[in-house]
């Protein structure tokens, strides 16, 4: 009995702490002109935003976000909540805008609008000026090789697959990466929008979200591995096969509902990171093989930026900073998951920049001068 009453008094202390912090959160939001906690939605039926302590157990994921939760909302209300302020609004929008951005890039590439697809063009050209000048002799030899090529009209489709210099190389690995990124960003938005509906849907969408992250990581490997080892297909097979196998293992592991809980946050991050670190093996191999590549520094700069963005984002995801430092202050804007989302989009964009350089290089060089 003694321990039960002690637990009760502890619980009361925690509740008063939460309600104190709740007030802090509300006062921050009132500055934004938002009362946050009470809302009347369609047809007079009342759907209220609730605090962390009022959540069903399956939704208690981050105890440092104290309020503005939607719990057990109907699908229609959840859908229209994309235009309302709650603690998932920016989680939905950060990845939805990222999805639209990648959709636009995919369309620009499919319709061959270079001004729109090469968003890093100016940046790349300014960096490349020096390396391009150094490789001008190399380019002259490429021109000579191009002039010795047979008439393009007489090249059969099989011969085109050999990736001859000056001819567009195959695009499917590039679109696999764009498709994987779009799937991840869109499934994440949908997950954040609808997982408040029910426990069943929450588990389903979390699984789809983790699958999306894994697919984005796997498909990110396709363009660099394919284009770097284009002239050495057994390495293509080993590395693409290896990362795909790791991805399938990760998806199967994460499909276990028990691993979707907050307790396994660090384990999930470790699985995703281990796939990323697997990339170091082909990356080191590629740097050794392509040491004389004039685009080496540009590619390394883009890929280092990507790694830095992803690792920084993961750091926020695991540490739950800044909300851990001031619980309740970042409920609506500025909490770790939103920052993590922004870094994911930045990382994917940096990788897109690197992929354009791979494509441009392979288009111009083919396999003839880089066996
Ligand atoms: Zn998310």
UniProtKB/TrEMBL annotation:
The keyword Transmembrane helix applies. GO terms for cellular component: membrane. Residues 11-29 have a biased composition (Polar residues). It is a multi-pass membrane protein. Zn(2+) binds at residues 192, 337, 341. The chain crosses the membrane at residues 90-111, 172-196, 208-229, 235-255, 267-288, 300-318, 339-359. Pfam families: HlyIII (PF03006). InterPro entries: AdipoR/HlyIII-related (IPR004254). Residues 1-40 are annotated as: Disordered. One of its GO terms (biological process) is response to hormone. It comes from the Eukaryota. Its main location: membrane. PANTHER family: ADIPOR/PROGESTIN RECEPTOR-RELATED, HEPTAHELICAL TRANSMEMBRANE PROTEIN 1. This is Heptahelical transmembrane protein 1-like. It comes from Erythroxylum novogranatense. The lineage of its organism: Eukaryota, Viridiplantae, Streptophyta, Embryophyta, Tracheophyta.
